TrEMBL record:
Protein name: Transcriptional regulator, LysR family
UniProt keyword list: DNA-binding, Transcription, Transcription regulation
GO molecular function: DNA-binding transcription factor activity; sequence-specific DNA binding
Superkingdom of origin: Bacteria
Organism: Pseudogulbenkiania ferrooxidans 2002
Gene3D superfamilies (alphabetical): 3.40.190.290, Winged helix-like DNA-binding domain superfamily/Winged helix DNA-binding domain
Source species taxonomy: Bacteria, Pseudomonadati, Pseudomonadota, Betaproteobacteria, Neisseriales
UniProt family annotation: Belongs to the LysR transcriptional regulatory family.
Biological process, per Gene Ontology: DNA-templated transcription
Listed InterPro entries: LysR-type_TF_proteobact-type, LysR_HTH_N, LysR_subst-bd, WH-like_DNA-bd_sf, WH_DNA-bd_sf
HTH lysR-type domain ranges (all copies): 11-69
Keyword Cell membrane: no
């Protein structure tokens, strides 16, 4: 497509919003759903933007959907900067009332998102009722570059990227079994006794992080008749009393249905990292949510390490 850009004052700035959604979702249908319009509207707005700029922004692929061209990649950098600048400007000029409203999307691992982030953020909304929150507890990595979330909580620190990143917390995983299982099977007095038992584990080739493959360290070659990509599914399976499982202490808590097995000998410590894009650090709602979660993690350090039986919550004055 021959480049013949029109004057900026004739550009429909609203088309940039459509461009960003297509770039992030790679399909017009997904972008339409997120924007609350139909498929044809998205296609029409993208064509209009391409004509206005005199550039082809996407190439269509059956396998990958809408793929950014070189021109599209260049526009994406500026469009995201414009989006962030506009959000920051709205907060600054609209005063405190606007700064404490808006929307935050948090992506995190399944177990931590369900067992810790969700109950903590529920109280965050008591103080900031005008901030709406999406929590995405999923068993895979969240892609911030595609704006799948504003804040990501992951097992590994991002290796690169323009992110504001900090260690959120350490957490511990222990070996658990039901009292009934322990009564029906050979006693476990030392680590070597584990060789005669069965374990519930992750599906090795589908684990989204090597840090999830605990059994490689605890008991290589362990018998695993039941595997799952979901830690919550593993928790439910352990409750059935047919195998042992290594589970996060924050997920089990003080559940009387499970008993710790060799806690002094079998303990795994991992970390959670929290980060968000550098261009979001000026958005008050983002920093409020991130700071709140960081404070909650500090308050619950013992709980996350399995040294306290129950989760604690911030009092209203502590959340300020």
């Amino acid at each position: 497509m021959q480049k013949n850009p029109i004057p900026v004052d004739r550009l429909n700035w609203d088309d940039i919003k459509f461009f960003l959604e297509v770039a992030r979702t790679h399909t017009a249908s997904s972008a339409a759903k997120r924007l609350g319009v139909d498929y044809t509207t998205v296609s029409r707005r993208i064509r209009a933007l391409e004509q206005a700029l005199g550039a082809l922004l996407f190439e269509k692929s059956r396998s990958a959907g809408f793929v950014l061209t070189v021109d599209g990649q260049q526009l994406l950098r500026y469009a995201e900067a414009m989006e962030s600048a506009l959000q920051a400007a709205c907060e600054e000029v609209s005063g405190t009332g606007f700064a404490l409203s808006g929307h935050v999307r948090i992506g995190c691992t399944e177990g931590f998102g369900s067992g810790f982030v969700t109950p903590q953020i529920s109280r965050f909304q008591d103080r900031y009722p005008d901030i709406t929150v999406d929590i995405l507890p999923v068993p895979h990595f969240i892609n911030l570059s595609r704006r799948e979330a504003d804040i990501a909580i992951t097992l590994e620190r991002p290796e690169r990227g323009p992110y504001v990143c900090s260690k959120l917390c350490d957490y511990r995983l222990l070996l658990y079994a039901t009292p009934d299982y322990l009564a029906r099977h050979p006693p476990i007095r030392q680590r070597e006794d584990l060789a005669g038992h069965r374990f519930i584990t992750y599906v090795d080739d589908l684990a989204f992080s090597p840090k999830l493959l605990y059994m490689d360290d605890v008991l290589p070659g362990a018998k695993s008749p039941l595997r799952s990509t979901s830690v919550i599914a593993q928790y439910q399976a352990a409750l059935q009393g047919r195998a042992l499982a290594i589970l996060p202490c924050f997920l089990v808590g003080d559940d009387p249905r499970l008993t710790r097995v060799l806690p002094e000998q079998v303990a795994v410590t991992r970390q959670f990292w929290m980060y968000y894009s550098e261009d979001l650090r000026k958005l008050k709602r983002i920093t409020l949510a991130a700071d709140y979660l960081r404070t909650c993690a500090q308050l619950n350090q013992d709980f996350l390490l399995g040294e306290a039986p129950r989760m604690s919550y911030l009092e209203p004055e502590e959340a300020a």
